[in-house]
Every structure is written in C-alpha cells, then in structure tokens.
C-alpha cells in the first residue's frame, strides 16, 4: 500500500500521544498567557531581566507570553502528528479491507 509507513498499533499509539500532547500543551499555553504564578519556575527569568527592567512586571509578562506561544506552537505540531497518525490508521483499515 502506497504511503503506509507504520502499522495499526503504532498509528493508534501516535493518535493517543498526540491527543494528550495537544490537551496538555494547550492548557499550559493558556496558563502561561494568563501569567499563572505557579509556573514562574518554568519561565526563563534571570537576574538581569529584573535588574534592567524599568517596568518590572512587564518583562516577566513578556517571558510568560513567549513561553505560552511556544506551547501553542508545540500543540499545533502535535495536531499535525495526530493527523498523520489518523491517516495511517485509515490506510491500515483500507489495507485490511482489501486483503479480506
């Protein structure tokens, strides 16, 4: 079958992992863009960022937003991976239908 790269079990695993990745990263993106205080340890903040900032929370908020956008980008990549896995599952089902 042309375009078939992985088997049905690997395609199902890829769909499950991509679904979890989309949910988790989308939620993290939301929490980072709303500046959740619990996630401050995951923001790449240095002493220099705080010392040189004339408006102290502004630089921290920009870093929060940057990390949030990165989470949304990673979530979109997981969506593409999930679409690929879905196509692989359909190709596997078609192959099983043609064989039987």
Number of helices: 3
Query: In terms of per-residue confidence, which ranges show pLDDT below 50 for 5 or more consecutive residues?
Result: none
- Can you give the helix content as a percent range? over 70%
- Decide which structural class fits the backbone: mainly alpha
Large-scale geometry: rod-shaped
- Proportion of β residues? under 5%
Mean pLDDT over all positions? 91
**Major sheet characteristics:** none
Order of helices and strands: HHH
Number of strands: 0
Distance between the termini: 14 Å
Radius of gyration using CA atoms only:
20 Å
Provide the domain count. 1
Provide the fold topology.
Blueprint: H1 8-33, H2 47-52, H3 56-99
Give a verbal description of the structure.
There is one protein chain. The chain is mostly helical and 100 residues long. It is 76% helix and 0% strand. The chain is built from three helices and no strands. Helix 1 packs antiparallel against helix 3 (56-99). The protein is rod-shaped, with a radius of gyration of 20 Å. The chain starts with 7 loop residues before the first helix and ends with a helix. The mean pLDDT is 91.
